[in-house]
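Hi everyone, sorry if this is the wrong subforum. Our group has a chain we'd like a structural model of before ordering constructs, and none of us has done structure prediction before. Sequence below.
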Amino acid sequence: MPSQLHAGVAKVDITPPLGLAMAGYGARTQLSDGIDDPLFAHAIAFEQGDEACAIVVGDLIGMDRDHCLTVRERVEELCDLPGERVMICTTHTHWGPALKPYNYLPGPLRDGVSEDYTAVCIQQLASAVAEAWRLRAPAEALAGTGDADYVKYNRRTVASDGQCQMNLTFPLEQAMVAARVGRELALTWQKGGGRGERLSEPLEELDGLRVGPAQTQVPLLKLVRPDGSPIAALFSFGCHPVCGGDRNTSFYRYSADWPGFARRVIERTLGCPAVMLLGFAGDQVPIRRQDDSRRRVGHSIGAEALRVWELIEGESIGPLRVSSRMVDIPLRELPTVEQAEAAVEAKADPTGTDAVQERHMLSLARRWEGRRALQAEIWSMSLGEQWGLVGVPGEVLSEFELQIRQQTPFANTCVVELSMDCPGYLPTDAAICEGGYETGWTPFAEGTEAALIAGAVEGLQAVR
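Answer:
Right subforum, don't worry. Here is the predicted structure as C-alpha cells:
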C-alpha cells in the first residue's frame, strides 16, 4: 500500500515592465508597449514516501539550459527539494519578454533585453517551486485524457514535388479541412501498433497540398484534497501560442496567448490553479488568429480539460516515481563562424529584419562550433500505471509525440516540450528531407528522431 501522496501548487505573476524586447517574431521592430493579459509562472510539487519532484512552467518563449540550472540551484537554496527533481519548462508564448539578446532580434532590440528582469524571473520561478513545496498537503490524484479537435492543424503541408510548403495560416474553411484530416492521420498511430500515416493524399480543398498529423489529446491530472475539494488541474496540449490579437494594436503587448484563456476557464470554474504544459507543438498552429482567437482557442482547450475533470472518478493513483537521463542529439554540419559572419555582413542591413536568418545561423555556428552532439536531459515522472509524463528540450514536431504514445506504458501520457532547454526545433528524418522553416532553423541532424524517441520511451519505462 503506497504512502499518502502530498501535493502543493503556487502561482506568481512574472509580467515584465514595459519597454523591454519581446521574443517570438523577428519582424518586431519596437519594444513592448502594453499588457493584454498578465504572464504567470505556475509550480506544482509532489511528495510520496521517499519520492519527490516539482514542475514549474512560465509564460515565456523558452529558457536556456543555463537559466534552468540556475533555477534548480536557487530551489535548493530555498527548500530541501533536490534540484534535479525539478523540471523547468515554458508555455512558449510569442508575446512575452526575451530573456537574452537572441540574434534574430534586430540590433536595437537586443539592447532592450533586461538582464535585471531575467535574473528576477529566474528567482520568481524558483520561489514558485519553493512555495508549492511548502504548501504540499495530503492529496488524491486521478488521470484522464480528452480530445480537443478543430483547434489546430499541421503547418508543414507538402507540395507535389515532395517539399514542405509552410502554411502558417489558412482561410478558416481550409484550416478546418487541415485540422480534420490531420486528426484522422493521428488516429492511425495506434498504441502498440506500427507506424501510422504521416501525410494525407493531395487534398483538392487545399489546392493539391498534403497535410500532416495533428495530435489532439488533452491529458489531465486531477489533484484534490481527501475531502474532494480541488488543489490543481494539470493539463497539456500541443499548439503554438501564436493566436495573437490585432497586429496593429497587440503586436507589442504582453500576453500568455491561448494558454492564459485555457487556464482561466478552469480556474474560474473550479476555484483552483490550472497548470498548462505545452505538448509537442513544433509544427502545430491554431486554426484561428488575431481578433478574439486567443479566447476561442483557449476556451475550447480549457473546456475539454474541464470536461475530463468533471467526469473522472475512482481511487487515487500512485505511487510517485521520478527519473532523468541524458541523451545525445546529433548536430548537423553548420557553417563556420567566419562563413556565417560573412553571410551577415553581405546583407544590406546586417542588424535589420532582413538579416534574421543569417544572424540566427551565426548564433548556431558560434554555439555549436567544434561539437557533434547536444547532451539533452529527458525528465520523467509517473503516478502508478495511470499517469506518465516526459519532458524533452526544444520545439518538437508532432510525429515524435505519435511515436512516443505508441510505446508508452501508461494509460494517460503527458509529453512536454521545451523542458530544461530551448536549443531549437527537433526534426524527424523525413522532415529534414522535405525541408521547410523548422529544418532551416534547426541545428540538429538526421538521427535526432531515433535518439529522442528512444530517450523519451526509456524515460517513461524508468518510472513504470
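For your construct planning: The chain has a mean pLDDT of 96. The two ends are 16 Å apart (CA to CA).
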